[in-house]
Amino acid sequence: MGERFAMPRRRPGRPVAALLAAVGVVAGVLVGRPGLETVAGCGTTADLYPSQTAKDWVSYADHVVVASPTGERETNRRTYAKGPVAYATDRLVSFRTDSRLWSRTAPRHSLGPAFDVVGPGWDVYRSSGTRVAQMATDAPRLQTGHTYLLALRWHAGAWAVLGEGGAVPFDDHTGDQGEWCGRVLSKEDVAEGERFSRHEDHSLEKALLGQDEQAAKSALDRAAGAGRG
């Protein structure tokens, strides 16, 4: 059974989006199924909560963590009687909590050393059995072998990423380095994308380009302190 990745359309407003658009990564299928509405940037559905800035993260998240996927399994299988796709699944991605950078004073739920998040899954084609990876449109797919900075909120009885801005590639504990939409990008790749991105982009993702978790923690602490002022 073959597997391939379909690359999503992305709006060129943020560095990574601009980079992929610049190199012609603009074709693919956007995912918008109800089962994926809790995933960062999934399809054309709206974010669960604002997720772009450090203020958004401390206003709406319960915890901000550096975390690494340790495994995954298919979940929420949907079978179709007609059409080219025989069935589709989401993925339940298991994470290890590597470090916790921030938690609200009274989180909605405690976070342990491991947790699960639903991620984009697979479309399996009827004629060939080929599995095509679904993609989050403005966020990582969340794959094993990589590390991420995540803004997590307890939502509907499960952990969810705030939105497409609440998941930042963090390989080697470096902001904007790692897996994004199924591709592996370096911080230099993302920096190149900044030449095409909007200057008014004030996202935390952009601020953390090439930075480590101390920079992330400092940004979150400043935002939390400003909110108390």
Number of strands: 10
The arrangement of helices and strands along the chain is: EHHEEEEEEEEEHHH
Q: If you average the pLDDT, what whole number results? A: 80
Helix percentage: 10-25%
Pairing-aware structural class of the strands and helices? alpha+beta
Q: Give the CA-CA distance, first to last residue.
A: 57 Å
Q: Any idea what the shape is? A: globular
Note the main sheet.
8 strands, mixed
What proportion of the residues form beta strands (DSSP E)? 25-35%
Point out poorly predicted stretches: 5-13, 18-45
Helical run tally: 5
Estimated radius of gyration = 17 Å
List key phrases describing it:
229 residues, alpha+beta, eight-stranded mixed beta sheet, two-stranded antiparallel sheet, 5 helices, 10 strands, 18% helix, 33% strand
Structural account:
By secondary structure, the chain is an alpha+beta fold. Helix content is 18%, strand content 33%. It contains 5 helices and 10 strands. The strands form 2 sheets. Strands 1, 2, 3, 4, 5, 6, 7 and 8 form an 8-stranded mixed β-sheet that branches. The termini are far apart.
What is shown here, in short?
The protein is built from 5 helices and 10 strands. Helices cover 18% and strands 33% of the residues.
